[in-house]
Each structure stands twice: as structure tokens, then as C-alpha cells.
Specification:
By secondary structure, the chain is α+β, with helices and mostly antiparallel strands. It has two domains: 7-21 and 69-141, PH-domain like (Roll), CATH 2.30.29.30; 25-64, no CATH class. 40% of the residues lie in helices and 28% in strands. It has five helices and nine strands. The chain has helices spanning 27-42, 45-64, 130-139, 145-156, 162-173, and strands at 2-3, 6-8, 17-22, 69-74, 77-81, 88-93, 97-103, 110-116, 120-126. The strands form two sheets. It has a five-stranded antiparallel sheet, with helices on one face. Helix 1 (27-42) runs antiparallel to helix 2. It starts with a strand and ends with a helix.
């Protein structure tokens, strides 16, 4: 499949921004730090040592892990920034999204795969994909891969409609 074309960030038209999404969530650093501090303050000696290690490790990761803008959500489009070159981005209008799917990765960043009507694709890599998928579901409803598959099954007569399921269980109960 062909990827959606990358354009310069400077060439983007201005739109009202709904949400900027980055790869670093502050809560993922606050919670371990807070646990470490509580271990230092209230734990026995061994827990204090582990708490100190917890805090130092969390701060080291926070300093080392650079914040990267992943996407910008506007009312009319989704803008995804290039991982290697933050001066480039991919843009897709909400109405151009044909389907999307979430691919989980237990070892790192998850991937949202977005396909337009011309079979061009866009990959969005981030640790918490639900920060973007909730907006895709809001601005481009009924485009998830699961929805499309179920819709195709229903058109072919393979899927069970809710009415058929209710009738089936209603008949079984009346026996």
C-alpha cells in the first residue's frame, strides 16, 4: 500500500485545534514518583532504598525521554507528524477516512493504521492510542475496521441482526 503523502508543517493551513497529542504523558511519571516518595516517607529501610531507586529511575526516564508531538486534531482533519522529521506531517480529512484499525504492541508503542478511500495509509505510533481513537470515532464515525467487517457481513446476510438474536432467544425461552 502507498502511504499518504508527507507535507511540510509550514504549509499547513490554519484550523481550529481541538487537541494536540504528544507521546509523553505526565501522569506516567507522576504516579511512579509519588509511589517512590511514599515508600521513602513511610516504608521500612529496604522500602526506602527501593523508593529512592524508583524516584531516581523515574526522573532519569523523564529527562531522557523527549517529548514529541504525535498528532494534532482539528475539527476538519487529523494531522500526524513524522517520527524522524518533525518538520513533515501527513494530513487526512475526517471525511476521507475509509477505515482504521488499532494494532497493539506489548513491547512498545501501539500503531493506529488509517486508510483513506484511495487505499493510501497512514501510521500513527504512540503509547496511548486511545487519545486519538476517541476523536476518530467522534469525527469519522462508523469507520473502524470492526464496524466495516460487521457491516459487510450484514450486507451479505452472514451477520446476525439484533432482531434475529432477540427472536432466537425469545423462541428458546417460550419452549
Amino acid at each position: 500500500m502507498i502511504e499518504i503523502e508527507r507535507i511540510s508543517v509550514q504549509d499547513l493551513p490554519s484550523h481550529k485545534i481541538v487537541k494536540d497529542v504528544s507521546n509523553r504523558q505526565i501522569i506516567t511519571f507522576i504516579v511512579p514518583s509519588l509511589i517512590g516518595v511514599l515508600m521513602i516517607l513511610f516504608g521500612p529501610n529496604l522500602a526506602k532504598v527501593f523508593g529512592l531507586i524508583f524516584v531516581i529511575f523515574t526522573l532519569a526516564v523523564f529527562i531522557r525521554f523527549k517529548e514529541r508531538k504525535v498528532a494534532t486534531i482539528t475539527e476538519t482533519q487529523l494531522i500526524v507528524y513524522d517520527i524522524k522529521n518533525p518538520e513533515l506531517c501527513q494530513v487526512i480529512a475526517w471525511e476521507d477516512i475509509f477505515t482504521w484499525d488499532l494494532q497493539s504492541n506489548s513491547g512498545g508503542e501501539d500503531c493506529i493504521l488509517i486508510e483513506d478511500h484511495d487505499n493510501k495509509i497512514m501510521y500513527v505510533y504512540l503509547f496511548s492510542p486511545y487519545r486519538i481513537t476517541k476523536y476518530i470515532e467522534e469525527y469519522a464515525p462508523k469507520t473502524s475496521k470492526q464496524y466495516r467487517l460487521k457491516d459487510e457481513q450484514n450486507k451479505r446476510g452472514e451477520g446476525n441482526s439484533l432482531k434475529e438474536v432477540i427472536n432466537y432467544f425469545g423462541k428458546r425461552r417460550n419452549r
